[in-house]
Amino acid sequence: QISKPxxxxxxxxxxxxxxxxxxxTQEQSHQKGWAKFDLNAVLIPPSAGLGLTKRYYQRRTMFxxxxxxxxxxxxxxxxxxxxxxxxxxxxxxxxxxxxxxxNIPATIAFILTLIGIPITLFVWFAMGGVLFPLLLWFGTALxxxxxxxxxxxEQSGLFWGASCIAMVSWAVWKSSKINAQGKxxxxxxxxxxxxxxxxxxxxxxxxxxxxxxxxxxHTLRFVQHMVERGLAPHPDLSYHDVIDQxxxxxxxxxxxxxxxxxxxxxxxxxxxxxxxxxxACRNCIEKSLTKRIMSYWKxxxxxxxxxxxxDPINYDNIMVTGYLGVAIGLYSSAxxxxxxxxxxxxxFVITDKxxxxxxxxDLADA
Length: 366
What we know:
By secondary structure, this protein is mostly helical. It is 60% helix and 3% strand.
């Protein structure tokens, strides 16, 4: 029996999916040959781009940095120990304390720190490893304390105090400028969006009946490749580009892509056929749950959240819950197969000792 859409809602996990919620009373539709067209559905709303979550974290980070800044400057000006003063100045900026030390080893270390800043920021971006820039920042502060002699470069306190204020002020100004430009772009696009949508609506043609179209031989070869890729055994990654498992080149996205492609093929070109194409979809879905594919999550949690809670569904993993959820949804819609809606149907293997049994409904809840 094919269940109704909204598995998680039916089981009481969520009040309602977002797309099932009853909307507010819509304003009068625009009546110019496209009666069902609603301006509110096309125009970019004033709320777009406000970035309330972003601003919350920016404000929180600013308060945290302000505390470090004031603590570091106060300690540099008032403590007696050169080592403690140099380490405290390092709280203002990675390597700042090394400039206060002022000897040759500290200068070399400062140059290496400047090289390390973009590297650690890239690693943070690439795998969520906030640990690495923190290690660089506070590690260089400790290094400055270790390298400090009997005296320090006193002018370094004033230099870093003013420099950090200047850098933060520039970042705030730049962010405000980008936001203002975004608002101008929003208004400009809203001027031509209705006309463009009207033009597209008037030129649109009805979609062909599923199964009424045929693929040409060239495209069929791509479908054949997707089927062969999808049917490869779980340990076999020879059909995939194995680069890293953290960014968009990760194998999991390639597996989700196979499911998406074949599910769309079955829906539009072969609605009466499941067979090996559906089997290839299932194999990719289940292959994406294996340890070799999912073990990256352990390292993201360790270095990004400092936790050993490796559950890939509970928190901050839309790149799995979202992409895998879409893949399973397309597969289920194309085949009518609801096996992944059963409790524990998806067995995420993070390590040999950490298995997390979830379902399609859990992905939707997340």
